[in-house]
Amino acid sequence: MQKTVIRTEAAPAPFQGAPYNQAIVAGDLVFVAGQLGLKPGDTAVEGDITQQTEQALANLEAILEAAGSSMEQLVKTSVFLMDLGDFQAMNDVYAARVGDRPPARSTFQVAQLPSGALVEIEAIAHL
Q1: What is the count of structural domains for the chain?
Q2: Quick check: 82 and 117 in contact, CB under 8 A?
Q3: Beta strand pairing status for 23-26 and 29-36?
Q4: Domain residues for 97?
C-alpha cells in the first residue's frame, strides 16, 4: 500500500523537528498526528483549555483539508487532557466543531504533554 505525506503551512510543523508528519494518507483514510493548541509559526502554547482546544481543532481541520478530507469525515479521535477536570470545557468546543455525526472518540488524562499543553487531539478520517 502506498502512503502519502500531508503537509500544510496552515498548521504547525512537527514539534521541534521530530521525525513524524502532520498526516499520512493510506488507502482511503487519513491519519492525523496529535495536534496541540499551538498556532502555526508559534513556539509556545498559550491560553486556557477552551482556547487550546479551538486551536488544536483548527490545526486538525487545516490538515484534513490539505489531505482532501474534512471534519465531517472524521471516524475516530483521541483526546489527551492534562486534567480530566477540563473535560466539559473541551467537550463544549469539540461538540461545536465535529458536526451532528461525531466520530468515535477516546479521552484520556495524561501525565504531561509537549510545551505544557493542556490538550492534544489526534484523528483518523475518511477521504
Answers
A1: 1
A2: yes
A3: antiparallel
A4: 3-126
